[in-house]
Fold this sequence. Notes:
single chain; about 160 residues; alpha/beta; 6 helices; globular
Amino acid sequence: MQSRAILLETGADGLFPNGRSAMRRMLLATDGSMGASRATEVAAELASATGSRLSILTVGGNISGEEMRQLARAEGNAADALEELSNQVLRQAKERAEGAGVTDVRVQIGWGDPAELIIETARREKADAIVIGRRGHGRLAGLLLGSVSQKVATLAPCVVIVVP
């Protein structure tokens, strides 16, 4: 990925929505898709440039039935397969962040509704920003129910950066 200049602008009162004057905590939501991969690059660059802690969250269970069957055959059961896939997504994202110079990286797996878990995690961790890809694995569900990124952008307690 080419290096990009990052310009941070604050609101009219000069502060981020949480009342602090600097970005210290970022949350990256990833499902391992191409869109999430681009979001990982942006989050890593931004966290590195601002010296922010980067928490990386993936939500288990967000894969197709065919992917689940293939994983279950390889792993022996569906629960182990989901956990292994989630761990793989987190490992790859963490490696990319550390490779970009982020020194404080934390990873976690959540289970349930992706949008709700992202928002809940952002609140719990007092995130200054959430970085998320515009489209993940759930294309059809996104068209029918509204995408995860749309829900997060609407309901999040902080700045949301949606990466195309």
